[in-house]
TrEMBL record:
Lineage per the UniProt record: Bacteria, Pseudomonadati, Bacteroidota, Flavobacteriia, Flavobacteriales
Catalyses which reaction(s): (2S)-2-hydroxy-3-oxobutyl phosphate + 5-amino-6-(D-ribitylamino)uracil = 6,7-dimethyl-8-(1-D-ribityl)lumazine + phosphate + 2 H2O + H(+)
Cellular component terms per the entry's GO annotation: cytosol; riboflavin synthase complex
UniProt keywords, alphabetically: Riboflavin biosynthesis, Transferase
Source organism of this protein record: Croceitalea dokdonensis DOKDO 023
Pfam family, one: DMRL_synthase
Residues of the active site: H97
Name of the protein: 6,7-dimethyl-8-ribityllumazine synthase
Amino acid sequence: MATVTKNLSAYDGNSVPNAEKLRFGIVVSEWNSNITEPLFHGAKEALVDCGAIDKNIIRYNVPGSFELVFGSKKLIETEKVDAVIAIGSVIRGETSHFDYVCGATAQGIKDVNLAYDVPVIFCVLTDDTLQQAKDRSGGKHGNKGTEAAIAAIKMAVLGS
Ligand SMILES: Nc1c(NC[C@H](O)[C@H](O)[C@H](O)CO)[nH]c(=O)[nH]c1=O
Ligand SMILES: CC(=O)[C@@H](O)COP(=O)(O)O
């Protein structure tokens, strides 16, 4: 199923565990902040809607999506959290740098998932155009941050 056939913000609250006793880390890339900030707010709002307490949501900022890997690692090593959401927006430019950033970030986040007993949710948009990114960060296709928050709650419970 492609994103265009679903609303990223849609979830059934009755099928999501209560998050009141859970602690979350959110690592946010500063690159394309016009996209990553709406993703962050979508994620935080969904976590709170599902019972999470504001003081149990810890935010780290990193320069770009490539640094989400190290930022997630450091957050897990520093804070006691049940899940981490890694938020980024990579938009294709003129060169193949897009492919290297997306590939390294995806593989790196996968590696952190395996290295630590803490789920790290891949909330990184990898778009060909700015419009695609806008559509997925609170636009016509919903908010990937919301989707990531629900995944974080479910995975935190699975890992508990
Ligand atoms: N072009 C984008 C980048 N590039 C920067 C890298 O993520 C990284 O910060 C740099 O290579 C230094 O290590 N990052 C994004 O998140 N989004 C982009 O579109
Ligand atoms: C994803 C990127 O690093 C990319 O936006 C950089 O743009 P360019 O490939 O034109 O240097």
